Amino acid sequence: MVSRWLDNIKCLVEFLKSITLETMMDMKNDPRALAVAYIEAVGQKQFDRVAELLHPTVEFLTSGRSIRGVPAYVDALRRLAPIIVRNDVQTTIVDGSDVAVLYDFVTDTPAGTVPTIEWITVDAGLIRTSRLIFHKEHWPAAVGELTRRSGGAK
Predict the structure, then answer these.
(1) CA 1, CA 111: separation in Å to the nearest integer?
(2) Residues in the chain with pLDDT values less than 50
(3) In a 10 Å sphere around its CB, with 0-12 CB exposed, 13-18 middle and 19+ buried, how is residue 94 labelled?
(4) pLDDT (tens digit, 9 = 90+) per residue, 34-49?
(5) Beta strands 126-134 and 65-68: pairing type?
(6) With CB atoms 3.0 to 4.6 Å apart as the test, which of 48, 73, 131, 142 could cross-link to 111 if both were Cys?
(7) Cβ atoms 96, 111 nearer than 8 A
(8) The whole model's pTM is what?
(9) Could you tell me the fold of the domain covering 2-149?
């Protein structure tokens, strides 16, 4: 009885491993799946996972500001962690290797939910470029709360 149960568990583990591998292969071939996985990983504060999805020469662009390279970009995301509650993906638009992800960046600050668009370009199955566009009206309240929670450092 126990032996059969252990065999079933082993089969289940192998099955789950195969799903993970398939999912990863899908993301390499499916820009939409990669972009959504990235947005969700940021929203879940899975920054090591985010790093795995980024091209080594990733470039992040927003409001005249640019961040280049995986370590610098992931570090910037980690600094936002104190205010991130989650990201709620609303829709995606795909054109070849470009994906526009429309989502709500949900915070627990006075800013609340910030409507956001990320225009992501995929290269070799990894995110090469991210251009962020977001509703700036309430962003100062989010930054103020982030500064307070971080002890005054942005």
Answers:
(1) 57
(2) 19, 21-22, 25
(3) middle
(4) 999 999 999 999 999 9
(5) unpaired
(6) 142
(7) no
(8) 0.80
(9) Nuclear Transport Factor 2; Chain: A, (3.10.450)
